[in-house]
Structure formats: structure tokens, C-alpha cells
Design a protein that fits this description.
With 454 residues, the protein is an alpha+beta fold. The chain is 27% helix and 29% strand. Strands 1, 2, 3, 4, 5, 10, 11, 12, 13 and 14 form a 10-stranded mixed β-sheet that branches. Strands 6-7-16-15 form a 4-stranded antiparallel β-sheet, with no helix packed on it. Strand 8 and strand 9 form a beta hairpin. The longest helix has 28 residues. The radius of gyration is 47 Å and the shape is elongated. The two termini are 76 Å apart.
Length: 454
């Protein structure tokens, strides 16, 4: 039960984590319907700026305890939004695309947070709009869709509510004049002058390098029973995604720009942007092509007959089956080899036959206490050469020196010294024998003691 609960929690965590929106420098999300005249799109731009003052100084005094936020929304009726829409359309035309933005909404959020070691400025701009004129041509079989519009960028000043949302340096000039004066004329000014609305990399990354999949749910017979959107009923949905490190796109890393400022103290200005990401969907099966230098997709309601694809593109299905077959053959060969190895191994008792062993007790009593320890030895010495320890060959043979008593004077007894003096034996005086088994004492008590020890 506990394992099932743990597995459920882990799966739920993975689902939540995978569905959580990531923060990117530029993130495109567009859904193109070739059967309609317009389709929605959304683009996020984000950057984080750090002003570091490790040694304190003027910027520390000004920023370390400061917090403020500038945010707002605006639609196409705002002059700044109209200017942005015109600039984006000009950039799209310069890229060779015929698509146009017909409507646009802008959300901007700038948040400054001061700390003891640094101050961060989180900069976010979100534009949502409507894309038109993306259909190049259409017939009974296929629709050609323009996909060359996705580099939504501009270097122009975009002023909304008195704030240039496209260039952080202009915002700092209005909101933080002391910081602006420190940065002005340094390399940090060039870093902070880079435009926020920049999706050039999304256009530079060729669609053939994007991750392609298609969803055939719309053409399933029973798809309508699951509340399927009418727009994709009878169609498949193609998707192209970018932003992951892979052999197709290469290694995707965050973009970091750093500059040092030597003023009253040493300051560091650093900007951080994550790798760009794009999610582009089209109703129908899209086959990529290039027309007059612009990337397009030929969209059909259903994929070609017999078409199969994986996450890596049109990977031959026979190669997949072949690799699986080779793995199966390798597994079978491994089990056959292991089975033969087991059969060749000797089975049963490999040492001394237990029936030839006999046990004997090795522990002697001491003060009334005796253990049950014992050892085993062979019943006979017929095969002793095969079973004896190899250490017996190298171990030196011990020389047993048994003391020999040649005279009463050499006896290791307590009466030897008194015998030389002609006095009575100490054993007689003590009433007990003080000698060992080699004693030649003439005392009766010693004779009895030594005779019992021999």
C-alpha cells in the first residue's frame, strides 16, 4: 500500500513539474489553422538584471533596501502598442514573410528588489495578438502556410505609459537616475541597451532542426465522444518545438553578459537570459519546404499513406525493429552460454568427505567451568598429504626443552635452599609441598605430591 502511494505521489509530481511553464528569454506559442483567415499567437520576453556591489558603496546605499514594481497592460488603441505592431510587421516583411499582425495586446512587468549584496531587476514583456495573411495558396489537396514570420523582434523604442519597455537603460534613466549615472558611458550601458523584444534566434533556428510530431486524435473514429474541438475534427495536428539541447539544435545555454564598473567602488552589472523556446502548431499534417527563401509548410488533412514518425523525424521503422531483434538475439545467446557454464561446473561436495571426520572436545575445565568447543579431525591419516595445511611446511618446528633435574640442588622447589644449609625441608615446616614434579625432595609430603604428578 505504501509503495503504491509513493508511486502515485512521484507520478503526480512529474506531471506537475512537466506542466509548469518555464521561464525563457523568448518563448513563442502559436496555433495556425490553415482553414481560417486568422490565428492567435503569444510571445514572452524575459530578462533578469543583477547590479552587484560586494564592497558596498553609493549603489549599496541607494538600492539595498529598495523595492518597486512597474506593470501594466495596453491594447491596440494605445499609441505605443500601435507603434510596436507596425515595427513587428516591418521586421516580418524584411524577413521575406507575407504574414501580418492585425491585433496586439501588451503586458509588461518590471520588478526591482534590493538586497545586501546585489539588486535584481526582473523584466518581462508578453505580447498576444492575431496573425493573418499566412496562407500562401490553397487547393483541394494541400495548403501552403507561411512560417517565416516567427522572428518577432524590434530595436525601436516602445514607450507605453511613459516607460520604454524595450530598452532597460531608458527605464533606469527615469526610475533610477543615480544608477543610470554610474552606468552611463561604461560597457554596462551597452549591455543594458540591448532590446528586450528579440526573437531572432527563433527564426535563425531552421524548422528542420525543430522537434516534429503529429497528433492523429482528430481522425480517430470515436474522437468526437471525447469532446474534441471542432477545429481539429477530421484532421491531425502537427507540432514543431525547439529549445532543448539535442543533436538537431545543438547545446542550448543561457545567455549571460557581464560588465564591471570602477566608480567609488567596484560594481558588476550582469544580465541573464535563458535559451529561447518555440511551440508551433498547425492543424493538419505539415511537410516543410522553402519558397523564395522563406520556410513554409504544406499542410494536408491527413498524413501520407504509410507514414510513420518518431520524435527524431522520419526514422525508418525497420531499423527500430532490427535493433529490437538484435537485442533479443543477444539475450538468448547470453542465457545459452550461462546454462552451459552451469552444467560444466562440478556439483556436490568438493572438499573432505564429512563421513571421514570425527569430532573431539578441546576445552578443559577450569575452576568448574567448561565450554562446549570442539574440533574435527580425520579418522585416519591415509590422505593427510592432500588435506593438511600448507602453513605446516613453512612453520618452524618448535624445540621442546624439557628441563632435566640431575641433582637435588637443581630442583625447582621451595626446599632446595634449606637442603644445602642442612636444615629441615621447608615443605615439612609448611605442611604442604612447594615443589614441582621434578623435585627429588625426601620429604614424605613431596614424595606423595610428585608421584601423583608423574
Amino acid at each position: 500500500m505504501s509503495r503504491a502511494v509513493l508511486l502515485t505521489v512521484l507520478v503526480a509530481g512529474l506531471i506537475v513539474f512537466s506542466s509548469a511553464p518555464a521561464i525563457w528569454a523568448a518563448q513563442l506559442d502559436a496555433r495556425i489553422n490553415p482553414n481560417d483567415d486568422s490565428s492567435p499567437f503569444k510571445m514572452n520576453y524575459q530578462k533578469t538584471i543583477f547590479i552587484e556591489y560586494p564592497n558596498g558603496g553609493q549603489l549599496f546605499d541607494e538600492l539595498h533596501d529598495k523595492t518597486w514594481t512597474i506593470s501594466g497592460t495596453a491594447d491596440s488603441s494605445n499609441p505605443g502598442v500601435q507603434n510596436l505592431m507596425n515595427r513587428l510587421n516591418e521586421n516580418i516583411a524584411d524577413d521575406g514573410s507575407q504574414a501580418r499582425i492585425s491585433d496586439l495586446n501588451v503586458l509588461y512587468d518590471i520588478h526591482l528588489k534590493g538586497r545586501n549584496l546585489n539588486t535584481s531587476i526582473d523584466y518581462k514583456i508578453i505580447i498576444e495578438g492575431t496573425l493573418t495573411d499566412y496562407v500562401i495558396t490553397k487547393d483541394q489537396v494541400r495548403t501552403l502556410v507561411d512560417l517565416g514570420w516567427r522572428g518577432l523582434s524590434t530595436n525601436a523604442e516602445i514607450v507605453i505609459d511613459g516607460v520604454d519597455i524595450n530598452h532597460p537603460i531608458n527605464m533606469l534613466q527615469v526610475e533610477e537616475p543615480i544608477l543610470y549615472n554610474v552606468v552611463k558611458g561604461t560597457e554596462a550601458e551597452n549591455i543594458l541597451s540591448k532590446n528586450m523584444i528579440d526573437a531572432d534566434f527563433i527564426l535563425e533556428q531552421k524548422l528542420t532542426n525543430w522537434h516534429f510530431l503529429f497528433d492523429p486524435t482528430g481522425i480517430n473514429v470515436d474522437a468526437g465522444t471525447f469532446g474534441l474541438n471542432e477545429q481539429i475534427s477530421g484532421f491531425v495536428v502537427s507540432s514543431w518545438t525547439m529549445g532543448e539541447s539535442s543533436l538537431r539544435e545543438g547545446r542550448q545555454v543561457e545567455r549571460v553578459f557581464t560588465a564591471e564598473i570602477n566608480s567609488d567602488q567596484r560594481y558588476v552589472v550582469r544580465t541573464v537570459q535563458s535559451a529561447d523556446q518555440g511551440n508551433l502548431y498547425a492543424i493538419g499534417f505539415g511537410a516543410l519546404d522553402i519558397l523564395d527563401g522563406v520556410e513554409i509548410a504544406g499542410v494536408t488533412p491527413k498524413p501520407p499513406e504509410g507514414y510513420a514518425t518518431t520524435s527524431t523525424g522520419e526514422f525508418p521503422i525497420m531499423i527500430v525493429y532490427g535493433m529490437a531483434g538484435l537485442a533479443a538475439i543477444g539475450g538468448i545467446a547470453f542465457f545459452i552460454f550461462s546454462n552451459r557454464s552451469l552444467k560444466n561446473e562440478k556439483v556436490g561436495q568438493q572438499g573432505i568427505d564429512p563421513s571421514r571426520l570425527v569430532g573431539y572436545q578441546t576445552s578443559a575445565s577450569a575452576g568448574g567451568y567448561q565450554t562446549n568447543r570442539g574440533e574435527a579431525q580425520l579418522r585416519d591419516d591415509s590422505d593427510y598429504a592432500q588435506t593438511r595445511s600448507v602453513y605446516e611446511e613453512s612453520a618452524p618446528k618448535e624445540q621442546l626443552n624439557t628441563p632435566s633435574v640431575t641433582s637435588r640442588d637443581e630442583a625447582a622447589c621451595g626446599c632446595a635452599s634449606s637442603a644445602e644449609m642442612g636444615s629441615e625441608c621447608d615443605c615439612e615446616m609448611q605442611g604442604s609441598c612447594l615443589c614441582d614434579g621434578t623435585c627429588t625432595c625426601s620429604a614424605e609430603i613431596c614424595k606423595e605430591h610428585t608421584s601423583s604428578m608423574r
